[in-house]
Design brief:
142 residues, single chain, 25% helix
């Protein structure tokens, strides 16, 4: 199983609120989905996908793209998708991981441009015996 040629086709990003309207907490939801899977040639399947990072009422980042998935069962995977809109869990897991690896770094730059929090949890540095206080969470503020 090999993933190659990940191409981003469209990027749409929008901030719904003004910069002076800063909510205390923002929930960031990630989603990736397959929009079309097609058999290309022996051992190769084309997968169209969409990635979305939703910031609730604050904003959204949507990325669409295509990748080529190389597998001995390429024809069967494409046929199963076209018949049932499902693919084997292991294949789906590999594809979703590749989509996230391609789209999340792109979304981080876009989020910075729109003054949205990055769609990844930033590490928190704690020195000594400083334990987190109750209710302390990540820096997800806009």
């Amino acid at each position: 199983m090999k993933i190659k040629n990940i191409n981003l086709k469209t990027i749409e990003a929008r901030r719904y609120t003004n910069l002076d309207e800063r909510p205390k907490q923002i929930r960031i939801d990630h989603n990736s989905s397959f929009t079309h899977i097609a058999y290309i040639k022996e051992n190769e399947t084309s997968v169209d996908f969409q990635y979305t990072a939703s910031y609730g009422s604050v904003g959204v980042i949507k990325i669409e793209g295509q990748l080529i998935y190389e597998n001995d069962d390429a024809k069967a995977i494409s046929k199963e998708w076209n018949d049932t809109r499902k693919i084997p869990d292991e294949v789906a897991s590999n594809l979703h991981t590749a989509i996230m690896h391609a789209c999340v770094p792109e979304a981080v730059g876009i989020a910075k441009d729109l003054a949205l929090p990055p769609p990844i949890p930033l590490p928190q540095v704690r020195l000594g015996d400083n334990k987190p206080t109750k209710g302390q969470s990540g820096p997800e503020v806009a």
